Amino acid sequence: MDNELVVIGYVRSSIKDRASAPKMEDEPGAVRARIEIEPAYADGLDTMRPGAKLDLLTWFHQSSRDALKVHPRGKEHLPLRGVFTTRSPNRPNPIGLHQVTVVEVQPPATLIVEPLEAIDGTPVIDIKPRKRPDRE
Amino acid sequence: MDNELVVIGYVRSSIKDRASAPKMEDEPGAVRARIEIEPAYADGLDTMRPGAKLDLLTWFHQSSRDALKVHPRGKEHLPLRGVFTTRSPNRPNPIGLHQVTVVEVQPPATLIVEPLEAIDGTPVIDIKPRKRPDRE
Q1: Between residues 26 and 65 of chain A, which touch chain B (CB distance below 8 Å)?
Q2: Could you give the ipTM of this predicted complex?
Q3: Mutation to test the A interface, candidates B6, B10, B84, most A Cβ within 10 Å
Q4: What does the pLDDT look like over B11-48, one tens digit per residue?
Q5: What is d(CA A117, CA A115) in angstroms, rounded to the nearest whole number?
Q6: Distance CA A74, CA A61 (A)
Q7: Read out DSSP for B96-131?
Q8: pLDDT tens-digit profile of A13-37?
Q9: From the DSSP assignment, how many helices (H) and strands (E) are in chain B?
Q10: Which pTM value belongs to this model?
């Protein structure tokens, strides 16, 4: 398997470190942020429009990849759980999955999105349109 | 950046090839399937329960990674679009994002889930709980 990720772009955000980032994008502290797509991948944004609802996939490059059990939300009084039952950034493949809306498309290859809790410099690995409401 | 994915498990499904797979998991042809997690990652399933709604992330190992523009749903009469405005499996990082429900947890490390359109043998790279309804 060709299992090496390519970085298609980076998050540019006013959130500069993990300590000041909220846990989830719908919590206080998530911000409007820039997604700067690398020139080599700019064509992949063709027909992107403001208002688009996206699944934004990032790579939590500062996370530990060794944890298989974690305390939910980092709270040590909560019992340990398997990492696949949590959204902890510490996981074997530290992929972040964020639901964001495109506010603006800036040529040649920048998206302004909100709300996003990922820190400045977080690598972006994929962008997909959300195709329908979640069937919760 | 340490950007090499690890395979945490595999999809085991009655869908054996891409030609017979539906495009999306909510279309006819998606099935109940097994997710066999590798022994090294089994602890990550601790506290997983039937009924859990998951974001299942896979790696479309048979996809092309070179396409930046595609015909939506492979229909050549539809105009080309940037791949990041589609959910085509052909994309720079061919990550599949599937919304599934856990039907059964089989020790030591197998999940029965539905509905899933990924083919038999597809690598699994992450499992996350969906935390709330989509804000469409």
Answers
A1: 26, 41, 43-48, 52-53, 55, 57, 59, 61, 65
A2: 0.92
A3: B84
A4: 999 999 888 888 777 778 889 999 999 999 999 999 99
A5: 7
A6: 18
A7: EEEEEEEEEEETTTEEEEEEE-PPTTPEEEEEEE--
A8: 999 988 888 877 777 888 999 999 9
A9: 0, 8
A10: 0.93
